[in-house]
Amino acid sequence: MERTDAGTSVGVDDPYAVVDRCDHLTSDGNCRFAAERADHDPEFAAARQAEQFRCPVAGDPAEHGPTGPWDWADCPHFRYRSHDDGCVRCGLAEERMAHDDDRPLVEEHHLSYADSSEDGSGVTSHEITVSLCRWCHAKVHNSWARIDDDANPDPAAVAERETRRARQQAETAFRPATELSEERETD
Fold first, then answer.
1. 64 shares a domain with 127
2. Who is most buried in 45, 68, 121, 143, counting CB within 10 A?
3. Does residue 55 form part of some domain?
């Protein structure tokens, strides 16, 4: 299983296996990075421009899945960040509290830690992340748990989510003006 620099598990054997598409890939199969950020890598942008900005991994957008000559790992500007609102492992949904500094229930979990740079600098050039709740995140890093396990939310996670939901409902609940004026009089 893939590991972090500290030796903890990331929960997958191949981080690229969870990727469905690069964040820079447009719906018509072009590379947004090469079109919009050519100054960051002029050689890459020129090569993509010579092929009408076609993504070398995606191939033909009419075909299902990546059909190009490259794999995601071959692209120097590949990035995949999951934008799920819930944990990919147990399905726990995020409950954000407005105007509150509570720690989020769902966090970003990095699957790619290996040095994928050509110069051996130790800098990870490919960002691959998924959303995990704090409890699944700890299980993945501290044990044998995998992100594709069929798991239920941890009881502590459900309790925390329900506590937040109850606070939200209390904040938005209708209270008659008489109750509000009584509260102001006692303060």
1. no
2. 45
3. yes
